[in-house]
Amino acid sequence: MKPLKSIHSRFVPLPIENVDTDQVIPARFLKATTREGFGKNLFRDWRYVDNDESKPKPDFVLNQQQYSGEILVAGKNFGCGSSREHAAWALQDYGFKAVVSSFFADIFRNNALNNGVLPVKVSDAFLAELFTLGNEASLTIDVAAQTITIDATGTQEVFDINRYKKTCLLNGYDDIDYLISHKAQIEAFETQLQS
Amino acid sequence: MAKTLFDKIWDKHVVQQVEEGPSVLYIDKHFIHEVTSPQAFAGIEKRGLTVFRPQQVVATADHNVPTLNQHLPIKDELSRLQVQQLIENCKKHHIELYGLGHPFQGIVHVIGPELGITQPGMTIVCGDSHTSTHGAFGSIAFGIGTSEVEMVFASQCLLQNKPKLMRITIDGELQPGVVSKDIILYIIAQITASGATGYFVEYAGSAIRALSMEARMTICNMSIEMGARGGMIAPDQTTFDYIKGRQFAPGLARWDKKLAEWKELYSDADAVFDKEIRINAADIQPMITYGTNPGLGIAINGKIPVTDHITDEGERNNITKALTYMGLESGKALLGMPVQHVFIGSCTNSRIEDLRQVASLVKGRKKNPNVQVMIVPGSQQVSRQVQAEGLDKVFREAGFEIRQAGCSACLGMNEDKIPAGEYCISTSNRNFEGRQGAGARTLLASPLTAAAAAITGVVTDVRELPAVS
Asked: Model confidence over B108-129: pLDDT tens digits?
């Protein structure tokens, strides 16, 4: 995993609540056996008419050229439903490094963190303010300081992340590195469990 | 100190507590399937690792498999490659695979319990959010992503933060025509699709105790649909009777020792939960959903909410968007509305009891000619039981089509899809946009309500269905 220290970028607003992972990446695209290439199918059925790439839906934000950036800002309960990690892979492959919402579904949050995509949980008021900003607005997310800032106004919130995960993100470590370094302890635990 | 059922199991499985971080949680059983495992196998191989405890992993092919002609090569190339990859990975890593053609093949959350692999007190994971199903046996069971599948392959452990605990107590007696699917759809409608996010749920109360194991599985299965990572029910005599004698259940030599352990698995009388919800079983009607998340449900004889009366702007926008997708009107009833498809299947409702309920209702009747009805048993074992009991004859005489085991039209990864714009009453677990096929419109309901609609061709209150003449 690549280290993630900070993000400074414009953002893509998606003011829809309960975005489930079936919308992020529909099931028919889960047949791949590698992690790459899911970005082109991100939000596939919201993005195109009749699954046809030559017919983008003009009212969907990913089809609006004035919006771009490495940050997706979405309504509350983002990532609910299916546990498919392909949702995190699709967001990452498309170019998002962080998702900002006022509430994340548990499995999605873990999947995102395990891929170095940062879920940033903000207050309802902060989220509402983000949705009022224009397409030129930019944000700064500082992982070490655990802050998200609206650059133009300096409005800032602190977000939560446990110290272990923060260390992982800043250094590019993942859970498997940690777990395999504790194999002896796991084996000792198994012996005790069987006794 | 008083402990909850969850605490008792969790505490016993913590290998290590990371400072200001998660716990290293030991996993007893790991189920895998073809869709969420290939990248995890590739991941450990890239690191030069092998599967740490292959004897604790069980594999099946269920998500993308066809439900017709399973003896033939899979036509869809990508599905075929994915299933082939599972076969190769399991062989290479010495993992038991119940693949296509195997007598134990089926939906992962159906076969684990029916084979006696799922047992009380275990920690169980699978790269599928409906792993919560196994909690019906008093185990900690939850869905994980593919990176986590890789972690369990590598170490038989996961790094997990302990969730908050919620208890939902349902006391009293259910009304006739109300089954466990209605209980869980009612709960989700009450607390919303995100109402239990961050929690693990224990279901308790006399109405839960009175349910069979299969009915309990339906409830725990849909815990994820209110955001809960998992749901669980304390094991009791119903649980022990269900497990005894199954293929991989503890044998006679170990049975008494295991039983004594299992009988300790309950929440102590003074155990404290972070949140408690109480429900009167008599308040629950047969349920049906009208929207595009499982929380948007109403009593079968109720009305869709009037969107203008919803004060929260976010919720109003949500429901308006859902009704537009569903082609339904604010404030209207669903009773009497024509449906074109009925799907009876999925890890929620494809077990033998579900199919017996359906058969008892349709026996001696014919389906409405305007409806296509597909029954997909949850496993090969369920299929054989259906035949042994002659239920297949009842279904065929009614004009229902019976398929082979798999996830099928629950998520439409294979050919079993609902056409755009058409309505399907489905016993599955998700009514998300496009879930059963691009543009498909899903109404979630119980097997009884689905069967009633198959007969009448319209949304029907099963309690009002006239007796067979």
From this structure: 999 999 999 999 999 999 999 9
Whether B194 has its CB under 8 Å from any CB of chain A: the answer is yes
Across the interface, whether the CB atoms of A85 and B145 are under 8 A apart is answered yes
The partner residue sitting opposite B145, judged by closest CB among A81, A111, A162, is: A111
A&B contacts, CB < 8 Å: 189
Q: Retrieve residue B17's tokens.
A: 């507590």
* Contact predicate B168/A184, CB 8 Å: no
The answer to whether B27 and B157 have CB atoms below 8 angstroms apart is yes
Handedness of CA A173, A177, A181, A187 (dihedral sign): positive
Q: How far is CA B270 from CA B5, B41, B139, B200, B267, in A?
A: 12, 44, 21, 18, 8
If you write DSSP's letter for every residue of B134-166 in order, what string do you get?
GGGGS-EEEE--HHHHHHHHHHSEEEEPPPEEE
- Output the six-digit token pair for B247: 């293929």
Name the nearest CA neighbour of A95 among A72, A63, A121, A77: A72
Range with the poorest average pLDDT among A87-96, A161-170, B131-140: A161-170
- pLDDT for B1: 86
Q: How far apart are CA B279 and CA A42, in angstroms?
A: 40
For residue A180, the Cα-to-chain-centroid distance in whole angstroms is: 26
Residue with tokens 């200001």, as numbered in its chain: B20
- Angle, helix A86-94 to helix A106-113, in steps of 10 degrees: 50
Q: Is the pLDDT of residue B469 over 70?
A: no
**What 3-state DSSP class applies to B283?**
helix
Going from the C-alpha of B230 to that of each of A133, A139, B1, B295, the distances in angstroms are 38, 35, 24, 17
Q: Tell me the C-alpha distance between A188 and A182, whole Å.
A: 10
Query: Starting from the edge strand earliest in sequence, which strands make up the sheet with A156-158, in order?
Result: A118-121, A98-101, A71-74, A6-14, A138-142, A147-150, A156-158
Label residue B162 exposed, middle or buried (CB < 10 Å: 0-12, 13-18, 19+). middle
Rounded CA-CA distance B193/B297 in Å is: 10
| Mean predicted confidence (pLDDT) in B96-103 | 97
Q: How far apart are CA A74 and CA A63, in angstroms?
A: 16
**Token pair belonging to A187:** 């084996």
- Sign for the CA dihedral angle at B47, B51, B57, B63 comes to positive
pLDDT digits (tens, 9 = 90+) for B131-145: 999 999 999 999 999
Q: Give B-chain residues touching A176 at CB under 8 angstroms.
A: 43, 47, 147, 150-151, 154-155
Task: Inform me whether the C-beta atom of residue B328 falls under 8 Å from chain A C-beta atoms.
Answer: no
Q: Alpha carbon B361 to chain centroid distance?
A: 22
Comparing C-alpha atoms, which of B454, B362, B355, B348 is closest to residue B407? B348
Cross-chain residue pair A85–B49, CB shorter than 8 Å:
no
Chain A residues whose beta carbon lies within 8 Å of the beta carbon of residue B63: 30
d(CA A148, CA A126): 10
